[in-house]
Design goal:
five-stranded mixed beta sheet
């Protein structure tokens, strides 16, 4: 019994630490007494935990706060200056490596295009080199973990990408194991749409509590990150949410996954760029950024194909609505950054026409609040979540 009691007490302390560090992250700067009120923990408990955090360097005192009746108290906040995590996002056409503080704020990042014909092993080598360069440049920070967002399907059991459409060879690389061995840091790998969902949830948790949030990543592939009551829905081997490989056209082309008429072949940024080039037949093929600019400049062909892509994505979203009955759908990634207002209006109109009024009236469709790269933010947040869930492991 004595051993069980000790284990339980340790677990309670871990839970209290996690609760307080997450509350402090949301508040920014606050007093110990305020944390006690928010958490319903005794002030002595809060004080003891904060003393540990300050001793570790995880939290710092930041001057005085004026409270009720003019009373002054010492303000505390997360130490966002001395520690950091790396976030890595792997795409089919590019990759991003970012340095983040412990509140999930971006400090610095580098984005590079994948050269035509470049093999996965070479790409991975460059990603690791960029990561080392960021760590070396941030001499004032101790990097304590790495998070990486990758295209799915990703098998957590095998620790490998099962398929990356249009690119072969990634299924031969144990990404997590190699990063952990090379950098001697805890490494967390997450499917990119799941990472995007976590980034959205991290910044607006109070809006999404006790509900279902689906983050739709419409980029070089198409995927969905599903959060129900604060927990990611992953499936038996971690590949839930692969809506890019759901069929929207029974007679459509065969996909690399073996299915036919897959959603991502109709509305991904790669499909969008291909269709514009097929329609215009330029002497030199336009890249994605060039066709994006054509849409923004009002080119009628590019705009028509963009709207058609929005219509196809709408079909995938209707399938999500009828499968999961989410309260919130958030759309992000490359295609969502082209003309966000146009895309949102088009999708809302299409979904409203295709689902029951009662369902549509009890859900919200919006664009991501993270405008540059939700996935690299989410990758960092996956790592920070483990730091906050097990602070003693990193600092004690």
């Amino acid at each position: 019994m004595k051993g069980n009691r000790g284990y339980n007490q340790e677990s309670i302390q871990d839970m209290n630490r996690t609760l307080l560090i997450n509350l402090l992250r949301k508040e920014g700067v606050c007093a110990r007494a305020h944390l006690s009120n928010l958490s319903s923990l005794k002030q002595a408990t809060v004080t003891n935990i904060m003393n540990d955090f300050i001793h570790w360097g995880l939290v710092k005192e930041v001057g005085f706060l004026v409270g009720n009746k003019g009373r002054r108290s010492i303000g505390i906040s997360i130490n966002n200056d001395d520690f950091g995590v790396l976030g890595i996002r792997l795409g089919r056409k590019n990759y991003t490596v970012g340095l983040f503080d412990l509140s999930g704020n971006l400090v610095e990042y580098k984005r590079n295009e994948v050269e035509p014909g470049q093999r996965p092993r070479g790409i991975f080598h460059h990603i690791k080199r960029e990561a080392r360069d960021l760590i070396s440049a941030a001499k004032e920070r101790k990097i304590i973990a790495i998070g990486m967002a990758i295209p799915g399907p990703y098998s957590e059991r095998r620790g490998r990408i099962e398929l990356m459409t249009g690119v072969s060879g990634w299924n031969e690389i144990s990404i997590k194991e190699e990063l952990a061995e090379d950098f001697r840091l805890p490494v967390f790998v997450e499917q990119d749409a799941n990472a995007g969902a976590l980034a959205q949830y991290w910044h607006k948790e109070e809006d999404y509590k006790n509900s279902v949030l689906v983050y739709v990543a419409d980029g070089q592939g198409v995927g969905a990150g599903i959060i129900s009551n604060g927990e990611l829905l992953k499936g038996s081997i971690g590949v839930a949410g692969e809506i890019g490989h759901t069929t929207i056209d029974l007679g459509g082309p065969k996909c690399a996954c073996g299915n036919y008429g897959c959603l991502e072949n109709y509305c991904s940024s790669i499909a969008f760029t291909r269709k514009v080039n097929e329609a215009l037949k330029p002497e030199r093929e336009y890249n994605f950024q060039e066709v994006v600019q054509m849409v923004r400049d009002g080119d009628q062909t590019a705009l028509r194909i963009f709207l058609e892509s929005c219509d196809c994505l709408s079909v995938g979203i209707v399938n999500i609505v009828n499968s999961f009955n989410p309260a919130f759908i958030v759309i992000g990634d490359e295609m969502a950054h082209i003309e966000p207002n146009i895309m949102l209006q088009r999708i809302r109109e299409n979904v409203k026409e295709r689902v029951l009024p009662e369902i549509y009236g009890n859900m919200d469709i919006s664009m991501s609040i993270v405008r540059n790269d939700s996935m690299v933010h989410g990758a960092a947040i996956v790592a920070i979540m483990d730091v906050f869930g097990n602070p003693a492991k990193y600092f004690e």
